[in-house]
Structure formats: C-alpha cells, structure tokens
Amino acid sequence: MAAGASFVITQPILGRDEMVDRLLQDYPDLPVVTEVWMSKKLSLLSDIIGREIPEEYPYDPFETLKIVQELYPNCGNYLGMLSLKNQYPILMEQFKNE
C-alpha cells in the first residue's frame, strides 16, 4: 500500500483466507479482487500458493467460487485458468438464473 496501490488482486484462495481478511480490515476502502482457481490441475495451484495440495483432494471450482463469493461479497472475482470452452457456458447459465 505504501507504493500507492489503488486495488489488489489476490493469489488463488480456496475459502476463508487470513490475508484477505486482514487486507479488508486494514484497508476497507481498497478494492480487492479475489482469485478463484477454476482448473482441476491442483499441482499448478500448489506451485502458485506454495502449499501442497494432494491430487486426490476433492476440488470443485464452482463450489469454491460460490464459497468465496459468500465469504467476500464486496470483492470482485478473477477466475484463474477458466476454461472458456467448458466452464464459461456453465457460468453464463448460472448468472442468467440469478
């Protein structure tokens, strides 16, 4: 923030995140965009967040997106590794129905 950031985009989060909570508490007027990992390639996600996630971990990107949106309703979402061919049509249907 000292460098003059006007917004923040997080690393991928899987749910409640201590760093995001602290960021929102310390800088309530700063726009925050949470990244939600949309790929099932968990080895890539492990490399990005620096924490081991077993390949057999039951990861559902759409469920994770729903959880993150519920936890952080005032944040935008960046959908990392979104498959435009397979996942985008599903998202469009979900948004149409809301």
User: What is the string of SSEs from the N terminus onward?
Assistant: EHEHHEH
How many DSSP helices? 4
User: How many β-strand runs?
Assistant: 3
Uncertain spans: none
**What separation lies between the terminal Cα atoms?**
35 Å
Strand order of the largest sheet: 1-2-3
Backbone CA Rg: 14 Å
Average of per-residue pLDDT values = 93
Global morphology: globular
Q: What can be said about the biggest beta sheet?
A: 3 strands, parallel
- Domain count, please report it: 1
Report the sheet-strand fraction. Answer: 15-25%
Which bin fits the share of residues in helices?
25-40%
Q: Which structural category do the helix and sheet elements fall into?
A: alpha/beta
Provide keyphrases for this structure.
alpha/beta, single chain, three-stranded parallel sheet, 4 helices, 98 residues
Fold and architecture overview:
This protein is an alpha/beta fold and 98 residues long. The protein has one domain. It has four helices and three strands; from the N terminus they run E-H-E-H-H-E-H. A three-stranded parallel β-sheet has the order 1-2-3. The longest helix is centred in the last third of the chain and has 11 residues, at 61-71. The model has no long low-confidence stretch (mean pLDDT 93).
Short note summarizing the structure:
By secondary structure, the chain is an alpha/beta fold. It contains four helices and three strands.
